[in-house]
Amino acid sequence: MVTRTIEVYDNDFLTVAAGSPSLSPGSTIINNSDTPDGTVFQFAGGSPVVVTLDDTSANTDIFEDDDYGHHTITDGAGLVATSAGVESESLVFVRQLDEFGNQIGPTITITVFSQGNNVQDIWAFHSDAPLVAGAEYVKTGGDNIGSTSYSSISSQPVCYAPGTMIGTPDGPQAVETLQVGDLVMTLDNGPQHIRWVRSGDQPLEEAEVDAKPVLIAAGALGGKLPEHNLIVSPQHRILVGGHGQLQGRFESEAFAPSKSLTKLKGIRHMKGKTKITWIHFAFDQHEVVSANGCLSESLLLGPMVVNGLNAAERQAVIAIFGSTSTPNAALNGPPARECLEVGAVRRQLAKSLEEKGQRVPKEIKKWDFDAAMERYEAERLREGDLKRQAGITRVG
Fold this sequence. Notes:
The chain is α+β, with helices and mostly antiparallel strands. It has helices at 303-307, 311-321, 342-355, 362-365, 371-395, and strands at residues 2-10, 14-16, 40-43, 49-55, 62-63, 71-75, 86-97, 103-115, 118-127, 136-143, 148-149, 165-166, 173-174, 183-186, 190-193, 196-203, 214-216, 230-232, 237-240, 254-257, 267-269, 275-282, 288-291, 294-297. A 9-stranded antiparallel β-sheet has the order 2-3-10-7-8-9-1-4-6, with no helix packed on it. It has a 3-stranded antiparallel β-sheet with strand order 18-17-21, with no helix packed on it.
């Protein structure tokens, strides 16, 4: 038996739109075989939650269709009952519609989950790309076989790989040896005590390339930075535009997701990796730290990260950092630097190449769709911080 977590939306968030040529307006998304192509859905908005289940199947890396007896809910996050048998029912392919009803953007895969061996009893869904609140989406196709890898439907917090050397007052120390209470050097606030540490294994056999770890080779950021090869998760942010790290390519210091840098020489996804252990740590606030000699981030406990934790972990971080009465604010925010979107980073890198008269690779020109999720997260964090500051001003 293996315990797995999946990131899902309440199925009530995606309903048949008024004016849809098929199905009843207001009804929730159902399985693929009962949903005609051309059906139009509307996304109401809302954040995903993490559901935990025990997998006792022969292949515990895959959430299978037609195998509800081997997938048992242990924490349904309020969407499905504990001990319910569930399965990855089917896939629904959709594209967003613009205000004129034209299809725009890439095809998005919606994975719907059923319970109790009832193909029509859908309780949640996962989207492989961000959905825009209020937007409409038309079904373009689907697959009645819903089996999917856990790695493709799980959240990805920002993490370091074992062996990463983190700067401390006593010199570099391997990240896997760090414990709560240890001091770590930060760029802005000197030595800071670690408040929370988490580690876990991630299977990667079925993971998409974009979800694979990112290797930043020694010297790839400029000069001798990092000093040694650095392995981080795809969403982990690296400081750019200052301190010798891609200096001159950005107007000011900012954080860039590691996967946004993979078109640069010496930075790549580790396509051959089949499994990895991740470690991350958090301070009282978001900090800039040294990892293998280059500047990177500590864990920012924003809404997406917190929603990506299981129930016990969420309770633990709230007990340590306190809850926030301000919607969308980070528990230990605000961000230490501006957090750039994947697309914004790639466009800036393309611009810097063009200014130097160098040819811009075709891939770097493409807008990375997951920038929408990062933009949503950044906007929510900014709104949360502004509301919190306004509340402090009123009290004063």
